Predict the structure.
Amino acid sequence: MLQSIALYLSLFMAILLFSITYTEAIKIANAEGKVHGGTLIFSSVCALLFSRFTYLFI
């Protein structure tokens, strides 16, 4: 029971963080001048981490 909840939570978080990463990459690609990529780097690392959690809970 708890393992299935953890699986769905980590899957949801991975999908959410990958979508945030995608939108941030679009914003950075369209920006002119100096950009700050902290959100892009942080969300992409966390998305990979949560996708690894999803793999572990299967």
